[in-house]
């Protein structure tokens, strides 16, 4: 069974992925793969540096905040970055899922990247807008950054329609753990 965990920024995807890990499941992290590909020496580094101005820090590493500011405010630049990263992430993910009976992946932009067809089941993590905003502000994002990131993802309603399972993350970690463990028992430990 191939399972994807997705949701909007701040919904709790990473917390759900961590709960799967705590229950003995390996979880592929597409964001970490993206970071690895973008590091100096990574497969995407040179192409990103060639296509985006003034994004390097003092150590010649890509400053992810500068890059995010560019792509979340310019749809053409966002597409350009996606065209560099998404094929490489997809290729890496396919290699990792090969020959695995159970493969779980955290893929924030699953639908936006067109990766949904690689999975048997899609778990969407959702939360209340007020909780989402609180979480993102605590991470240090400003309101205009939050708005531009949310606007660059499919709406929750579209993601609900495209998903198989919806996990409501209302802020109580115990309830969230119970929901994930119930999913594991009913779907993966059958």
Task: Summarize the structure in words.
The protein is of the alpha/beta class. The chain has one domain (2-184): Rossmann fold. α2 (30-38) crosses α5 (75-97). The protein has 9 helices and 5 strands, in the order βαβααααββαααβα. The chain is globular and about 50 Å long. The model has no long low-confidence stretch (mean pLDDT 92).
Question: Helix/strand-derived class?
Answer: alpha/beta
The percent of residues in helical segments reads 40-55%
Radius of gyration: 17 Å
Q: Give me the number of helical elements.
A: 9
Strand order of the largest sheet: 2-3-1-4-5
The general outline is globular
What is the CATH superfamily label? P-loop containing nucleotide triphosphate hydrolases
CATH architecture: 3-Layer(aba) Sandwich
CATH-derived topology: Rossmann fold
The residue ranges in which pLDDT falls below 50 over 5 or more consecutive positions are: none
Strand content: 5-15%
Beginning-to-end CA distance, first to last residue: 11 Å
What kind of sheet is the major sheet? 5 strands, parallel
């Amino acid at each position: 069974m191939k399972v994807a965990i997705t949701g909007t920024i701040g919904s709790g995807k990473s917390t759900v992925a961590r709960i799967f890990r705590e229950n003995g499941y390996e979880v592929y992290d597409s964001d970490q793969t993206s970071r690895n590909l973008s590091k100096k020496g990574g497969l995407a580094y040179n192409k990103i540096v060639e296509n985006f101005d003034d994004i390097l820090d003092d150590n010649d590493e890509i400053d992810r905040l500068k890059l995010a500011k560019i792509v979340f405010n310019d749809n053409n630049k966002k597409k350009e970055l996606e065209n560099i990263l998404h094929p490489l992430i997809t290729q890496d993910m396919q290699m990792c899922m090969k020959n695995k009976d159970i493969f779980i992946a955290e893929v924030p932009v699953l639908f936006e990247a067109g990766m949904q067809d690689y999975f048997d089941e899609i778990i969407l993590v959702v939360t209340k807008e007020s909780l989402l905003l609180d979480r993102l502000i605590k991470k240090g994002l400003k309101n205009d950054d939050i708005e531009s990131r949310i606007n660059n993802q499919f709406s929750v309603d579209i993601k609900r329609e495209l998903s198989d399972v919806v996990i409501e993350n209302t802020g109580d970690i115990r309830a969230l753990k119970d929901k994930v463990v119930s999913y594991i028992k009913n779907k993966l430990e059958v």
